[in-house]
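Sample log: Membrane iron-sulfur containing protein FtrD-like domain-containing protein.
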Amino acid sequence: MIALKLVPHLVAFFGMATVALRGATRRGMLAGTALAGFLVGTGFAVVSTGSVSGQFSFSLVRALLALSFLLFCAVSFTALYQSLGGSLPVGWLERLSSRPVSRSCALFLASAAAGAVAGCRLGPAVPSWVWGALAAAAAVLVLAAVLLESRLPAGLSTSRAGYLALTVAFLLFSASWSTRLDLFAPLTMKVMKFTHDFVHQFFESMLIPDHLFIHSYLWGYIGLLFGKEVGFWGGLIIWFTPVVMVFLAIGLERLPSVAHLRQGAQRRRVLAEAIRTRRMRLVLPGLALVLLASAVYRSLYPSVEYWDPKPVPVTANAGGEIFLPRKGEIDLMDGKLHKYVFERGGKTARFFVLLTPSGKLTVDLDACAICKPDGYGQAEGTVLCYYCKTLIPLETVGKPGGCNPVPVPFTEQDDGIHLSGVTLINTWSGTVQSTTRTTEKGK
């Protein structure tokens, strides 16, 4: 089971190492650097998840992945700008990146990021034999990368932006196999929330909801801006724009001048060779495009079974108080998400009880303040919003804001949990009314 978890991460590391060795003069030094970086990153992730907050470790790795993607965006934009005839002053960054030591440092950091993703997937409880097997597998893959790179066609090369595109694509593909490290789902949520907030504030400032000339049927079109599809398509645009810019940068490169050549056959030969070389330079960005698309698929259809129990009906006593025993048919202290449903006065409210990693119980609505109340599922140290596919770490459940479940006031005593049925119904009604108005009516 552990070996199967590591397969996609080792494949991504093998691809990164092969890309980094392409065209290098000191393959042995770079191969050792890649192996050392991968093992250091894996060790750091495994140790940190066991000694400090697991959320901190995952947040740090996600931040590194996001920074690599932002760097890729900047490099791809620069490459496209230069291919269009723009000139940039050669600064200290360009001079630094052209040195062999800089290439080794960049490879070490990229390999460490790949190893950190694998380490987070393993978790803190790793048997000692796994370390030996992992180190041996990584060493074999580095050796295989050296042998494969030496046998690749000489014409298979690309620009600096193309190499970076494939490296970042391997990292994001590897991260997509872990629901807590996947970047595409949080990206779509951020885009959706930004669009919702922007359009809402614009409408309010322009008094559009109260405008006499805005007919009701227009809200059907305006409401499209408040659906989750806005986040999905906006996320796709951001996700693929950098690699598309790399394609354009390579495709718009000027062909060599043949004006000085008198023979037509020689001119055609030079141009044909330049066109063939340019096509070969599109291979690596093409592979990056496939990997990014695979990461999107993994994000949309993760191979994770979510714990989503059927809500248990509960009632309130004469004083309107709901009581949930700590122990009984349902053990609230088992770390699982337990859902309940409460009905009163023709109104229904869903909520759940969960034991957080800090050892404290929390009571929350089965809904958040910004999405439709489709509910949550639990898996791999997180709860998932079924509407926007956002992952919320268990450490943050019980805290208000964003896509977190809306917390409900309660009192914890030795016998169990006590909460007000009236407060629960009012909180649910206010939350559902707000999210329904925002997502469906565009107000």
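Observation: The longest helix spans residues 54-83.
Observation: The longest strand covers residues 347-355.
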